[in-house]
Amino acid sequence: MSEVLLSARGLTKRFGGLAAVNDVTLDLWRQRIHAVIGPNGAGKSTLTNLLSGDLEPSAGTVTLSGRDVTGWSPERISRAGLGRSYQKTNIFLPFTVWENIRLAAQSRTPQAARWLARASSVKQANERAERALELAGLAPRRDHVAGAASHGEQRQLEIAMTLATDPQVMLLDEPLAGMGTAEAERMVELLLRLKEQHAMMLVEHDMDAVFALADHLTVMVNGQVIASGTPQQVRADANVQAAYLGVDEVGHG
Questions:
Q1: CA atoms within 13 A on the CB side of 33
Q2: Is this model's pTM higher than 0.85 or not?
Q3: How far apart are CA 54 and CA 245, in angstroms?
Q4: If DSSP states are collapsed to H, E and C, what string results for the chain?
Q5: Domains contained in the chain, number
């Protein structure tokens, strides 16, 4: 059943006199993909960092699964059920696909501090890693070295590592960046599968992918939300058309 898993209210981040994010409010629902779009410098990545705890807000609140997590550390927010991927792929290149995923899974087990124990003996972590491997469609690449994988497979691996931490909410920062057509299609299929069990926020520049995936769209310009609604509503919004097409109002140059 759909439910709000993450909420932001009046979220603001100032750097000196610059408001990189200014009074942003949004809800992320289970079984829905919420895409955040906008030109470079709009504040999309800053917003993601505020939601994940990588940045502390200047004002506003973030609620995760009913708990106020405003000002929590990224590690604490992650343990509370939020996972994220980054613009730059963040994996261990010399390790195999399986070893990368198992490392992520181990961070969620009580045995994580038992550094003398063999990783292969941590049953709970192994089971979580197996599920993530299958969900991400990487089982055929299990024993391949991550550094030798294609760009698309490395992005899949990062999502698998996120899944291995057992998140309820997933924040994905440009997961399709740099992909060819076939890789992008596989990623779209993966994200559509994952939304059945997660609330997801997607920051992405590939508009074809955005409109194929998004149940809800938020458009940011200069740190502010200028439109939010269904993809159809956003397409028809005069403010969005002005921001992207350089027109003053619909139908006028």
A1: 23
A2: yes
A3: 33
A4: CCCEEEEEEEEEEEECCEEEEEEEEEEEEECEEEEEECCCCCCHHHHHHHHHCCCCCCEEEEEECCEECCCCCHHHHHHCCEEEECCCCCCCCCCEHHHHHHHHHHCCCHHHHCCCCCHHHCHHHHHHHHHHHHHCCCHHHCCCEHHHCCHHHHHHHHHHHHHCCCCCEEEEECCCCCCCHHHHHHHHHHHHHHCCCCEEEEECCCHHHHHHHCCEEEEEECCEEEEEECHHHHHCCHHHHHHHHCCCECCEC
A5: 2
Question: Where residue 210 sits, what CATH number does that domain have?
Answer: 3.40.50.300
Summarised one tens digit per residue, pLDDT across range 27-62 is: 999 999 999 999 989 999 999 999 999 999 999 999
Q: What is the pLDDT of residues 158-174, one digit of tens each?
A: 999 999 999 999 999 99
Cα-trace Rg, the chain: 19
Mark which of 108, 137, 166 sits at the end of a domain.
166
Considering 138, 166, 194, which residue would you say is the last residue of a domain? 166
Q: Is 90 left (phi over 0), alpha (psi -120 to 50) or beta?
A: beta
Q: Tell me the Ramachandran region of residue 201: left when phi exceeds 0, alpha when psi lies from -120 to 50, beta otherwise.
A: beta
Domain that includes residue 160, residue range: 89-166
Residue 25 corresponds to which tokens in the numbers above? 């409010």
Residues 173 and 162 in one domain: no
